[in-house]
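[Help] Beginner question about ligand-bound structures

Sorry if this is basic. My supervisor gave me a protein sequence and a SMILES string for NAP and asked me to "get the holo structure". I don't really know what that means in practice or what format the answer should be in. Inputs are pasted below exactly as I got them.
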Amino acid sequence: MKKVLVAGATGYLGKHLLKELKKQGYYTIALVRNPGKLDGIEVDKILVGEVTKPETLNGIYPDVDYTISTVGITRQKDSLTYMDVDYQANMNLLEAALKSTVKKFVYVSVLNGRSLKDLKMVEAKEGFVEALQSSGLNYTIIRSNGFFSDMKEVLEMAKKGKVYLFGDGEFKGNPIHGADLAEFMIDHLETDDTELDVGGPDMMTQNEIAEVAFRAAGKSPKISHVPIWIKNLTLMLIRFFSGQKTYGPMEFFMTVMTRDMVAPQFGKYHLNEYYQDKI
Ligand SMILES: NC(=O)c1ccc[n+]([C@@H]2O[C@H](COP(=O)([O-])OP(=O)(O)OC[C@H]3O[C@@H](n4cnc5c(N)ncnc54)[C@H](OP(=O)(O)O)[C@@H]3O)[C@@H](O)[C@H]2O)c1
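Answer (accepted):
No worries, everyone starts somewhere. Holo just means with the ligand present. The predicted complex, written as structure tokens, is below.
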């Protein structure tokens, strides 16, 4: 049975990956800093380590065939930067993998990562992508569209009665459920693909996403279309008056909300069902 180590196993995608790996017959190893956050998901082995502290990663890979990292800052409240986590912690994992039996390193970056490299979060992620590409180890970079877990913001606005969108709301995207993304990733674990773009099955405009959220919330649609120049001004003010912890996620979120984010379509989960579950 092939062994797969998942770093970031306590996160939204990490947990879906552990379930999918088991479903597809792999031996699973979860590398975590807090085993309690695994929520009782079935795993073959739990390793406790701190990805930001390379000395805790010695010997994590004996006999491991594949490693997948979903480690990154999303909602964490640590005082660490994207460079500390999305770049350096993944470098620590890669350096440990290079000294081991690992055959392939799978990393999750963002859709359109190359063209979004001037954003703080993406700069760190794509810095790691470049290091992985030149490491000599086999790799797959997954460039995923937004996760359903990140679309909850729209539902929260709909529940309060009004959704704010930039521009005319006609930018398109196909967000993806963690279970679909996990299935896609494990289906490609043993292929030779080096880079894969992926999104969910439904291509929707932001207006349509807002309407789906209003339907789930049982409210009549009320969408406020905010001119795009306000985004630039808001970001400038946030950058000036706050730290990276606030600015970084806002910069990413507002940027991807003001362009099309269109990826090859995959999966069976639909946003309307996800929103109904979250009500
Ligand atoms: N959300 C999206 O729309 C989207 C789209 C494309 C790509 N991505 C990327 O996909 C990856 C997974 O996303 P997700 O939504 O599953 O994220 P998540 O739920 O926030 O999980 C992130 C994982 O990284 C770990 N982590 C973060 N900071 C750490 C630190 N300082 N030390 C040790 N572990 C740390 C977390 O561990 P703890 O549980 O211990 O905090 C958790 O296991 C991220 O890199 C994200 O940027 C996300």
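A couple of things worth pointing out: The first strand starts at residue 3 and ends at 7. The chain has a mean pLDDT of 94. Feel free to follow up in the thread.
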